[in-house]
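Worked Example 4.2. Consider the chain below.
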Amino acid sequence: MKKRNLLKKGLVLGMSMMLLLGSVSGCGNKESKKDGDTVTLTNVSYDPTRELYEAYNKIFKEHYKETTGKSIEVTQSHGGSGSQARSVLEGNDADVVTLALAHDITLIEEAGMIEKDWIKEFEGNSSPYTSTIVFLVRKGNEKGIQDWDDLTKSGVNVITPDPKSSGGACWNFLAAWYYADKQYNGDETKMKEFVANLYKNVLVMDSGARGATTTFVENGQGDVLIAWENEALLTLKEYPDDYEMVTPSISIKAEPSVAIVDENADKNGTQEAAKEYLSYLYSDDAQKLIGENYYRPSNEEILKTFSDTFDLSVDLCTIDDFGGWDQAYKDFFADDAIFDEIYSK
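Applying the procedure from the previous section yields the following structure tokens:
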């Protein structure tokens, strides 16, 4: 447990730094966020979306100027999804959140900062793009990793982030659990044993998905990274001769969610701009950009044009198979739930 404690200390320090940075660059009152013809938005997002939103902000600024005659600047913040949600609760002045899973946004809603039924405000459960969970291995795949059961074998070192702070890690866990469910016909004792064996092989559990990628790719630790598909594809683009992506037989349809933080947007006078920022993610131009950044467009017709990029035949479960995010979080990731039970062993 010593390594876990160190990670928790690092997470607390990281959150403090995010809050400090948010108070400098993201927080402000109505006057500071609407300066004449220039609007400023703060987008609090999760770990691997840096590149996507850097590209999206450029085309959105052009769109906003053309349609309103006003200039807009977007400030980005990134980190583990759960940590990012907590930072908003603790003062990060987000106008919009674009997080890894709906539960993290629900936490902000329950604090009264986001209107109820936010998930119905935009199409597809307010998920303008999806992803799935894959394995990233080193070139040659020396350990012969092909499916989830290979991650439980002796001598296989796994890198995956911590579900207590990372939304991607929650999707990772649920995909592994669903595989075990199919393998053992719902025998929960065997399912817990399977997932426990997988987590026994976890060498490093970072606080966020991008940190886990850094551990695997830049620091050279581990034999396999359980990763967002987009994160794995981006790594292959940057290091084509060094890594391979393995798609397991069963994975999960991951739905990152977006929402307006109504309390902040109302205070900052940015409600209209925030809505347009999230709505434009569904435009054809943005959907194509989403695919180019290795996320799966929610527009099915545009998604099909990326069939050479994504394996569209993989068997994907959904969060509905776990009773929705509120139930899944209660069953697996709340204090003393299944993840804690497994990890404590």
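Residues 2-128+256-304 form a domain with the D-Maltodextrin-Binding Protein; domain 2 fold (CATH 3.40.190.10). The radius of gyration is 20 Å. Compare this with Example 4.1 before moving on.
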